Amino acid sequence: MNKKFTLPICSFTLFLILLLFGLPKASVNCQDTSCEEELTQIGAEFGCTYEGQEDGFAHDFAVFPATDDYLVVWNDGNSYPDTLKGRIYDGTTNEPLTPEFQACSSDLYTQKNAAVGIVNETHFIVTFQGKGTTWNLYGQVFQYSGGEVHLIGNEFQINTYTDYSQEAPEMVILSTDYFFVVWQSDNGDGWGYGVSGQLLSIKNINAIGEKIGNETIISTYTRESQLRPSVAKISSGGDKIIVVWESNWQDGSYTGIFGQAFQTLGNYQGVEKVGSEFQINTQATKYQNNPTVSSFSDHKYFVVFWENYEVRNNNYDICGQIYYSETLETIGDEFIINVHTQSDQLYPSTSQLSENSFIVTWSSRYQDGSSYGVYGKVYSLEDQDDSDEKNLRAIDPFQINTHIENNQYYSQVKSFFQNEKKFVVLWQSDQQHTDGMNGIFGQQFEMEEFCDDTDSTKDDDDDESSSITIILSIALPITAIFLILIFYIQKKKMTQRNANKVVGSRFSDDQDGIGNGNNQFDNANTVNHTTFEKNNFNGNENLKDNDIPMKEVNSQMDLDTQNQMGFNNPNQMDFNNQNQMDFYNPNQMDFNNQNQADFNLWN
């Protein structure tokens, strides 16, 4: 094959090899399925706040494990100063089980940003941000019995550092005696905002809220600001927790998501770091904000979600990453949960459903035809046969709110304990009450097993086979056309070369030329009147002769004692096995098997 075609053919072949066998295999296979029977809406959308009573916003809630009843606490915007209100609801009917109660013992200052936790079937804790001269963090224990809610002990202060504002508390119950609170602390680490934490005890009725150990600075990196922490328990014994937050400029671009694991010391004598601080987001372009974390029901895995600014669309997506709780290693790659990408996706919330499944909710702008609406997605993390890899399956995203006017956002989701298939979502809805006030609304769902259809159960091998089939269907026709084109060009060239005719050529006098411009070939086997004058053939003596006979030896041309005489560029004589004399560029003489002379004219 002509040398000029060797490189493109080899390159094209290498391209096909890389295309077919260079396909990367992910360690987690994420698939969506749209089986309608998997998800059932239970009842109608309901309100947790009522017309003419409160302007509810900024809520948190938690489920009682023994009964699946749930506690809701929210900011009451009708009172001055702002205060916290709460109520307990029936987990089956969504009807209130208690009167509305004030979720703190003091009304001398503004309270907001409540975080709640269930201690046991009758006791719960509310932590919040309260303002006197500056913002500090407080907590209060309550008892629920006989349809009534009662204060237990006194309100207690959580933070030790008080010079600047302490804000946005989040909490996790570790056992019936201990809980852990994290928050953002202005100048607590000496540079902007930092994330702080405190282990507290409710073991002694006479010392509720007692601090265990010192206030802890959570983040190792303390330059710029660390904000919006979230915390979850990641061990069955309650001795290991994970804290995540957003950090400014730490990943080289605006904000990123980072995490740190902790374990309790001895019998809850304090906390210490486990391993190093680690980055959670893979994409580090511009903004990654507002993380939320939840562990699965057996605490073997945990998942983090956050808002991720997508440069291509100029909008935010919701991204997630799953981890092993024991090793803190990732399971698969970072993944995007939303399908709608034409506008911002914000405010993620997540909760476990079982030992291998979880629910995530978020707010999507303009997707339902109004401003923000609330959407959800359920995932299942499943083992692959004979492999350590995982399949991450999901149902299609679904809308949660029924009322779609104005904004529905700031959703929170919690699963039930007695029926793991059920979960409830609460959110803030602007001006949904007929009196124009904002309120807290909710909806329950039940999730069945993932359907067992072919599309939703395929594994990585099926995906790879499908990909290769598609690639082959494109690559093979292209390859065939490419080879046919090469064959056609080669055949056309051979046809021209083998034509039985002689084309006369004139060689002009030149120091680098050959002959005197009057060359005549009288016979196919003899060269007459050929003169080589003052040409330098690789340092040999000048050669001048006439009437050189040409002898055939084994179908080769023999000049003196050599089978071949070759003179390299610019002038060359080449007697090859085909009885050929070939003078290459710029002048060429060619004797081929057809006993022809071919002289091309090069001026």
TrEMBL record:
Q: Which residues form the signal peptide?
A: 1-30
Bilayer-crossing residues are 468-489
Q: What are the UniProt keywords, alphabetically?
A: Membrane, Signal, Transmembrane, Transmembrane helix
Protein name per UniProt: Uncharacterized protein
Give the species: Anaeramoeba flamelloides
